[in-house]
Amino acid sequence: MSVTLLIEQLINGLQLGTMLFLMASGLTLVFGVMGLINLAHGSFYMVGAYVTALATASTGSFLLGLAAGVLAAAAAGAIVELLVIRRLYRRQHLDQVLATFALILIFSEGTRWLFGSSPLWLSPPEALAGSVALPGGSRYPVYRLVIIAVGVVVAAGLYLLIAHTRLGMRIRAGESDREMIGALGVNIRRLYTLVFALGAALAGLAGSLVGALQSVQVGMGEPVLILAFVVIVIGGIGSIKGALLGALLVGLVDTLGRVFLPALFGQFMAPSDAAGAGTALAAMLIYILMAVILAFKPKGLFAAHD
Amino acid sequence: MNKLTRAGLGLLMTTAVATAQAEEVRIGMITTLSGGGSHLGVDVRDGFMLAIDQADRGDIEVLIQDDARRPDLAKTLSNEFMQRDEVDIMTGIIWSNLAMAVVPSVVRQGTFYLSPNAGPSALAGKMCHENYFNVAYQNDNLHGAMGAWMREQGYEAPILMAPNYPAGTDALAGFKHLYEGEVIDEIYTQLGQTDYAAEIARIRASDADSLFFFLPGGMGISFMKQWENSGVEMPVFGAAFSLDETIIKAVGSAAIGAMNTSQWAYDLENAANQAFVEGFREAYERTPTLYAAQGYDTARLILSALEKAHPSDKDAFREALREADFDSVRGKFRFGPNHHPIQDIHVREVVEGEDGEPTNRLVGLAVEDIQDVYAEQCRM
Amino acid sequence: MTRLHPTTTPAAERPAGTNRWLDRAHLVQGGLLTLMLLAPVAAHLLGEVYYVNLASRIALVAMAAVGLNLAIGYGGMISFGHAAYFGLGGYVSGVSAYHAFDGSLVMGLPGSDDMLVIWLAAALLCGLLALVIGAISLRTSGVYFIMITLAFAQMAYYFANSWPDYGGEDGLPIYLRNSLPGLDTNHALSFFLVCFTGLVFSLALTSRLMKSRFGAALSMARLNETRLATAGISPFPIRLVAFVISAMITGLAGALYADLNGFVSPSMLSWHLSGELMVIVILGGVGRLYGPLAGAILFVLMETLLGGLTEYWKFFLGLVLLGVVLFARQGVIGWLAGRERHE
């Protein structure tokens, strides 16, 4: 394998990682502040993508569509928090799992009821459709680089938000001691709604961006949700830093595994068997990674708290 | 929704009067109407019901159930149809793995099963059965035809890609069987994979002169978008599963130029097809996919056989089905010895339609009278 | 196993029952079991084979959930990966029948279509798998435990999906239902009685287990780990044994489920199935002996009945589940039989 191809695959892993970070950061934030397991996080990803697709088709502008998608996901998050989620904070994890599992069903089938079974059309904007030259002569799609850039901006923004703003201070206080921030006179109910909506908005952003490269269809959030959970567990639940590093680790391991394992197996197997066995192992790879990490670090790499 | 309610009401009423009308025909349809990939099931159902409605016979009742793409649920529903509703004929299943779960026991117990889509190799070969008819294709047909056509067009170094599951490996095997040349490489992806950047980089770095891929449903949509976005210049070939009308609408302009094989096209010129396409557009306000055409043909085959015999007379009805005495929307149609079609496979190209949206256009004939290779393993 | 301190047995804590067979909880439990037994018998007499098979399905799903309930409800180990054992049990059934059918060997052993052999193998293999998975997973807790058990189940799922020998995603048909000496397993009611026996056996086992000193230690490990530790008992082996038994019950249910369907496929290993079993346990009532049975009856009936009414049935299923979790906090059994007492 040439160095150029290796560089390209590394960027691919990075790009998958940033996309996972957008999903995982909201998930881990909600868990860190409110102690809530939210299986319905993937539904906000789907809402973001659907609204972006519909708004882009009717306005003709991807940017407007993107804004509409993120806002819609945030709004959906706020509404769900007000109606359902806030009744679950004091409940066991099990109740949260059942309730948010029910929300997945409601969101998925509700979406299908409203918009039908067929996938929707959504493409990257013309301006970002091309590709740029990589050192070594290969080319790389601009749009994927933009996703990486958005991921970097979001990571920096979240860092600034949490480390340097009043809201961030409250979020940190909420993470370390839920009773105390109430005593400080903070309106906890509003804070929780805000944090949940922020998490939903991040998922919606991921869905909107990636929807241009993938199939916008019912159930699109589920595979990403599982990956995002893997990410936050590897990184340590509640830790944004952990989510970032976990996301990059999962992105790189998954991408490189898909590329190298079939080739590796090809060294000592027949080509068609090697492709099958290598792909099978590649599919299991991130779960193996997660099991190994948790076996040695039972609270992930950067646990904030349990 | 409407039809389901109607079927449900029909059920309530017929249980009351079933004894009075012994000659009534009851058809059970299990198909995928919810979750990922449900547009296939919806199309099969709509095509099927269009033919039933057009026939306007009072003595046919169709019961429809959603399998949510789960083998165990499909199995339960098939029990419900056979043991409670005592249907004469079953049909509808989209996916090979669901068909493998349901079909063998259904046909063994003496109920007819007509497949409007899934055509796994086992059911065409070793596990073939006299009560099982496939009205769509054996799964390999379209892939093999594309192999033959690409060979004929002079492509010398194709690279192949499919998900790592039985239908995927069968697809590539089917392609190679009729391509009969060396391929550059075979890439297997994960089932349900959504990101193809790593695979596209591998394809770009290879010395291939063309790409043949099999990624049905959402996987195909994701791949085509990312392929366009990557800027790789290489002709793309597939089977209609990866490039049906619904999929290419969702892919948009990125699909334009892709070639695909299909046993049917909406612009195929024959009277039956014109009636079908017009009727379908009128009834459902969209252009039919091949799945809708398969559902339509399945119903029309059943109708043609009902003219000759009632399913309770198993031998006569089976013989009537075998004769395939109906005007298929794909033109020529007959069954091989294993009750799978012997049919022409056409090549279509995705072009920009009159409304600016991509659509499939008939280009030519890939293979005439194709028959699957498993027929010789079939002992019926 | 570590010796238990005698004062931790719940028998000492149980209030002296006043005619305990007549209270509401026992009436409901007895009613559920009787219904479960009599409904299919009635269906059989009326010639409605479908409902007999539906009852078999409910019994097996309930049995799998009883296994999971031992881990979740009594042990406090929220496993999101019990599909791994359900599926493994199913594959033992399928693979064994496959090799018995064509007379070939599997890892040097002949296949068998005798259910007793299959059950033994399924229980042993599931126990072994759970021993390995549990030993690693129990180092973690809370959400980490949920996710690591999911990770192992996903590995099993992808493995089965891409392993061509036994059909991969297409699955493996069981042409002839496996046999049991002295019984016609193809007869719907006979097979139901086998499933029902399995369900009753798993309920009895769980009940006996939880009344023993082992059960007391398991409850203590869930409620107050420090108190258990002061009694000189390490919670780890207790939990591990409970996890293994839980997996074996679910695995046995899986083996029978494959026979019921005449088919096994990777979908039996998918995370959807793990989630579904979990939903059934919570729906019925976590940590209640009869919770899984109540949950399974309700869930399977909703699935089959709603599915016939509208193609958007999952939407309404979601609403019902949400309603249960928000308003019926003790699950269906809590709603039917009242708040939990020392069972």
Automatic annotation (TrEMBL), chain A:
It is a multi-pass membrane protein. Keywords: Amino-acid transport, Cell membrane, Membrane, Transmembrane, Transmembrane helix, Transport. The chain crosses the membrane at residues 20-41, 61-85, 97-115, 142-162, 191-213, 225-253, 274-296. Its main location: membrane. Pfam families: BPD_transp_2. InterPro entries: ABC_transp_permease, BCAA_transport_permease. It is found in: Cell inner membrane. PANTHER family: ABC TRANSPORTER ATP-BINDING PROTEIN, BRANCHED-CHAIN AMINO ACID TRANSPORT SYSTEM PERMEASE PROTEIN LIVH. Belongs to the binding-protein-dependent transport system permease family. LivHM subfamily. This is Branched-chain amino acid ABC transporter permease. The lineage of its organism: Bacteria, Pseudomonadati, Pseudomonadota, Gammaproteobacteria, Oceanospirillales.
From TrEMBL, chain B:
Residues 1-22 form the signal peptide. Keywords: Signal. Belongs to the leucine-binding protein family. Gene3D superfamilies: 3.40.50.2300. It holds the Pfam family Peripla_BP_6. CDD domains: PBP1_Nba-like. InterPro entries: BCAA_transport, Leu-bd, Peripla_BP_I. This is ABC transporter substrate-binding protein. Residues 24-353 form the Leucine-binding protein domain. It comes from the Bacteria.
Automatic annotation (TrEMBL), chain C:
Keywords: Cell membrane, Membrane, Transmembrane, Transmembrane helix. Pfam families: BPD_transp_2. Coiled coil: none annotated. It is a multi-pass membrane protein. The chain crosses the membrane at residues 27-46, 58-76, 116-136, 143-160, 188-207, 228-257, 277-301, 313-337. It is found in: Cell inner membrane. This is Branched-chain amino acid ABC transporter permease. It comes from Halomonas rhizosphaerae.
